[in-house]
Amino acid sequence: QVQLVESGGGLVQPGGSLRLSCVASGTIFIIYGMGWYRQAPGKQRELVASVTNGGATTYVDSVKGRFTISRDNAKKTMYLQMNSLKPEDTAVYYCNADVVVAVMADPINFWGEGALVTVSS
Known about the structure:
Blueprint: E1 2-7, E2 10-12, E3 18-26, E4 30-39, E5 46-51, E6 57-59, E7 67-72, E8 77-82, E9 91-100, E10 108-111, E11 115-119
Parallel strand pairs: 2-11
Antiparallel strand pairs: 1-3, 3-8, 4-5, 4-9, 5-6, 7-8, 9-10, 9-11
């Protein structure tokens, strides 16, 4: 089984910074695309940023210029550097990844359990 574990969440003041990490473990042959989603209470879950196996990135408009997604394939780890945080960034942030667990297998999508980010003064 594959596990995705997030860390780095917490309470931060507006304008502050946090860095989220997501470590993948278990039976993994290769990880394709990875992404960070977030969900605030009463809101739909949205894709915040994604990164392909080759390093190409995308961002939702609301975080462009403030957030940076990256990955370290050797460490099976993905990061989300969040700067200039705003109260509207408050949400549970989820790690998501498409994982090939064996040679010739189709990729399987996995979710982490989430990390709470609270931006408040």
